[in-house]
Amino acid sequence: MAQLMVNGRAKLLDDTGNWNPGPEGKRQLRLRMINACSVANNFAEAGFTPVLDTVVETREELEFLAARLAARPLMLIVLAPPLEVARHRNATRPEKDRVSYDFAHTAANMRREIGDQGWWLDTGALTAEDTADVIVAEAARKAAISL
Q1: Residue 11, SS3?
Q2: What mean pLDDT do residues 81-104 have?
Q3: Which of 65, 78, 82, 140, by CA, is between 20 and 30 Å from 131?
Q4: Domain ranges (residues) in the chain
Q5: Pick from 25, 6, 17: which is nearest to 99 by CA?
Q6: What would the pLDDT profile of 16-71 be if each residue is shown by its tens digit?
Q7: CATH code, 2-145
Q8: Is 146 helix (H, G, I), strand (E, B) or coil?
């Protein structure tokens, strides 16, 4: 959804590279969430299982998404490798695919805010293919949430 905004796209990082979207950035993030939910709902209505691939950092964001997603059961899967594994993976990605800020704060905040929700899958020892296989096999049993 971010790629759809060209003119007027807000900076989400401050001058030191820390996450700090400010009021306009938060407004744009909310608009992106609304549109992602609309697209997901359209796919669900057509008989597909929608998947939103996004970072949900706070309970407020999770509740906002849950209120707008029609598909049920609603599942939350957090890919949660150890921080050092996540940093290594990020550093070895092509530069255009890297996260440009230290996500340690985001990870800690997610644990504090929504750590009691969904399935926190430690993918530290898993390949992308193994991760997908485990999710398909176990998500229905481990990831359902109700807010």
Answers
A1: coil
A2: 91
A3: 65
A4: 2-145
A5: 17
A6: 766 677 888 888 889 999 999 999 999 999 999 999 999 898 899 999 999 999 98
A7: 3.40.50
A8: coil
Mean pLDDT of 72-95: 95
- Is-contact 123 80, C-beta < 8 A? yes
CA distance 18 to 14: 5
List the structure tokens of 38. 């609309």
Which helix (H) or strand (E) segment holds residue 111: the answer is helix 104-114
Residue for token digits 């979207």? 21
pLDDT at 99 over 90: no
Place of tokens 């299982």: 49
Q: Do 80 and 121 contact (CB within 8 A), yes or no?
A: yes
Token pair belonging to 19: 């996450």
